[in-house]
Amino acid sequence: MPYKDKEKARENKKEYYEKNKEKIKEYYQTPAGKKSTIINSWKFKGIICDYEAIYDIYINTTKCDYCNKEFKSTKNRDLDHNHNTGEVRGILCRSCNVKDVLK
User: Fold this and answer.
1) Is the pTM of this model over 0.85?
2) What is the pLDDT of residue 42?
3) Both 53 and 101 in a single domain?
4) 58 touches 79 (CB < 8 A)
5) Angle at CA 47, nearest 5°, toward 92 and 101?
């Protein structure tokens, strides 16, 4: 239910978080919680795709689509996309994504 008073909404959200802090932290440690976090970050960045299909490909990719080097860690893996259209271009290592090699 949307609140007309944004301050009241903020207070309620903070109160809910304080009451359910441990439950929330546990959820984000589960595979479902991690998956929803990743997909939500893609949506926030404006990436437009079939999120379920791309997520499965993203999780199972072990090498950069550009330089073909193995990812050092899961944090080194980025979903590259066109910033104008939101179209996915590939799954790159952090250094290739920063270089923006797939323009």
Assistant:
1) no
2) 93
3) yes
4) yes
5) 30
d(CA 31, CA 55): 12
Tokens of 18: 């304080």
d(CA 53, CA 16): 33
Q: Report the Cα–Cα distance between both ends of the chain, in Å, rounded.
A: 42
Hey, what amino acid is at 76?
Answer: N
Start-end of H helices in 1-103? 6-27, 31-44, 51-60, 94-99
Per DSSP, the three-state class of 37 is: helix
Return the higher-pLDDT residue of 61 and 3: 61
28 and 66 both lie in a single domain: no
Name the DSSP letter for residue 30: S
Instruction: Examine the pLDDT at 91 and tell me if it is beyond 90.
Output: yes
Please check the confidence at residue 3 and state whether its pLDDT lies above 80.
no
Mark whether 60 and 15 lie in a shared domain: no
Domain count, the chain: 2
Q: pLDDT tens-digit profile of 24-45?
A: 888 888 888 999 999 999 999 9
